[in-house]
Specification:
260 residues; 2 domains; 11 helices; five-stranded mixed β-sheet; alpha+beta
Amino acid sequence: MAHANIEIQKERLNSYQYNGDDINLAFYGISNEDNLEKPRMFNVQAEFIPYQQNEAAHKTIWNYYKALIPRESRPNLVTFGIFLSSTTLGYFDTTATENWITVINILSLEDISSLSSVEIHEYGHYLTLNNSQQTPSSEFVCHQEALYGCQTADSYINHFYLEFWQDIYPEWEKIRDSSKDYDQDIKLFYDTHKSMFINEYASTNPLEDIAESWTAFILAPTPSNNSITDQKINFFYQFPELVELRFQIIKGICTYKQAP
């Protein structure tokens, strides 16, 4: 990862100081050649224009993403966005036709660890929430529909839910639906079940838990213990296609070369 860090630092920003609200800077289409194209620029204040016009930084973030995630593993990704945030490194959205939008914080260029983690985490959402993992919610009412539609019985997240969330989900659901102080109560939920989560953010909901566990599966050594957090990381090894994808992503990190 040190080699990749040297490469991304070629486009290091002059300043990483920002404490305001989230600001979308630019959304790009993805060409047939797998390059960014047709930028949609948002209206931003003058002080943020340098971030918005830093096309080299935008392309570095994208080039690293496509080096990690093979194109055949992201067939529905049609928009790649850059935003500015003091609290969030990335987010995802879907289009009206249920294609995928991935948006990465330009400040993630601060170091390779941040950039790797956010890009792998956001891909984890695609991996677990794309159409192949879902069934039309009109067919039946599923317990997790309020999170992000209904997952198929054989989906990654349904297996993950049954193994790690089924017992604690009612407790979490009560906090989500009726808490008068959500932040305090979700913090208490994490403190109560700390041994079950890789970090506090993972306790937010099952979707973030599986994405954080997926990120650790890619970036961390294979666990040798049997804690619940280790079990969550090892969960992905039962799927040969994900083991192969892990190999491809790690190879992408190790061989990444910034275009001249």
